[in-house]
Specification:
Blueprint: E1 2-3, H1 6-33, H2 38-62, E2 67-70, E3 74-79, E4 82-87, E5 91-97, E6 102-107, E7 114-116, E8 123-124, E9 130-131, H3 135-147
Antiparallel strand pairs: 1-2, 2-3, 3-4, 5-6, 6-7, 8-9
Length: 150
Amino acid sequence: MVEASPVKFYFAKYFFLAFSILQWLAAATIFFRHPFTAKTFFFALVFITIGMLAFFFFLLITEKVRRVAVGKNKIVVTEGDRNVRFAWPEVKSLTIVPFVNLYRLKLKGKKGCIYFFPSQNIDPAFGLLSKDTSKMGDIVQKRKKELGLK
């Protein structure tokens, strides 16, 4: 079974949460350290708004980015403390998301997509196209050809 680094996963999952907290701390610092004027209120409001947008983005991403291990016979999705195993015939599609260095996995009978990181960085082949040259990429390409997936 081949899996991406847990450091990549946790960094990507919690980056926007940490960014939003830093924005709110900056807004609180501006608001409480400087005298109340329209200018300080405006800048504090800008930082609060940026923090809220980052927190909203965190809420969207946190459910979709998962830790996934890919093997020759199965795909294992880690959901908290439990591991959910899927056989390759249950996969509806498995594609690389351009520019983001992520895989998008759609499963038959499941609503929504699961996003996960490859085991190594994906190198761009010819500008816009991406190709995973790692061991995980080899397993994925072989299974996609066998099953006729996109």
